[in-house]
Amino acid sequence: MSIKVSNLTYTYMKGTPFEKIALDNINLSIETGEFVGIIGHTGSGKSTLVQHFNGLLKPTSGSVYINGEELAGKKASKLKSQVGIVFQYPEHQLFEETVYKDIAFGLIKRGEETDEIDRKVRKTVSMMGLSEDILSKSPFELSGGQKRRVAMAGILALEPSTLVLDEPAAGLDPAGRDEIFELISSLHKNNKMTVILVSHSMEDVAKFVQRVVVMNKGRIEMCGSVRSVFNKIDELERIGLAAPQITYLMKRLKKKIPELNDNILTVAEAKAELEKYIRKE
Amino acid sequence: MIKDITLGQYFPGDSLIHRADPRVKIILTLVIMTNIFLIDSYLAFAAFAGFIVMAVFIGKIPFGYTLKGLKPIMPIIVFTALINIFTTPGILFAGYGPVRITYEGIDIAAKTSLRFVLLIMSSSIMTLTTTPISLTDGLERLLSPLKHLKVPVHEFSMMMTVALRFIPTLLEETDKIMKAQASRGADFDTGSMFERAKSFIPVLIPLFVSAFRRADDLALAMEARCYRGGEGRTRMKQMKLSKVDYKIALSFLLFEIVLIYVQYFKFHI
Fold it and tell me: One GO CC annotation, please (chain B) (predicted)?
């Protein structure tokens, strides 16, 4: 499912002394099945932009199109349900008595049949790698990583075709982090979902996404393939961002060993490159 | 969504009134409020309105902001005015059958409405030019003599400060949770009153959970910094009366003399 944003401007608290332009004339299009990363400094407008994708915020001017149809008016609520947003710390939105009820919340709101709800809840739970035992537990007695997966399940149960994730791994331990990202990339690969990842971690972005959008002060500063964006280290650093750490390491190594390739973004790539060099020796 | 609510309604600025000591502002506002109930000649009202407009001007607050506070109590003003107009006995101005409008009624209605408007405006000038934190600080200092009567003044003001501090945080949190629930199908705007109230449960429960978590964290952080109540506690920001305060107090005194003169000795309209 494609998302197109044209001339989008958004102003917070318009007409008060606290007025702030959060998005300034944004043009962007995301194609079906893409895995896009959005990076930027805190307050660069990433979260604001993402909240326009399912109509949580209404553009001050400009428009958002989903599958070519404008996200406004009568069709809006149907188009909205195509885009699922997983907010930062999604476990803070859990509220029901049992995990089952919490995951079913959106489906019940949508007015689906009971057995259809049951099927979807169980399907998402297994997709999220959770056991069915927890369905009858209270969401508040789960561990941090489990809570997060339950919260994500509440959104995935609605079967959106696009998934937006805002810092999905924030506050998780390394193991939990890997699990979440494995899950996300399997959703992208196996379920053919369009995934938009908002993140501060250049490593995660470099490892998983295909295309990167760099935001700065409410504008799109750069947009392109992961490799082309992370190649412009100076520009990234100028706006308070950076390349993945492994890239810096490889650039340093290249100064000692000139025949190394320093266009490296992930640890796996670095490993392969170094092994190749060592074998040649 | 909810971010558009201005609470505490402080209007940032650097005017004479902004810089004044909160204690001075609190006392003056109290005096002004009592004054509003003591005056009863139109000339005194006019003088008062002039004074308040001047204060708004000196405080560099957009005029519309001071009137904003009037909106919620407008029905009350209109209601009392109507009651006064129709129920006060006196010399007939106009009437039809049992409906009688008297000169006295119009007079009382006009004056009560004016009192309401002036009250709201003068108190908004104080809240618009003082941060909530310095207001509670000022209150604490003003009420500190009550400590001798074993009233826990410091604790109360600390509670108020903490509460005020967390209003924007909780509003932000509410906004976030509402958005999160809205993106999985919650609907806050349609349905009957009962349905809409019910639709807030998915917001309220997470909000309470997070409020308790925050309270816990804050208590721990305060304890880690050795907070143990008001006894023997010194302040980082000492409140001191400055030139600005004397200026304001003096000009207010002048105004008060004019007001007393207008009210009691001359031009009794």
Answer: plasma membrane
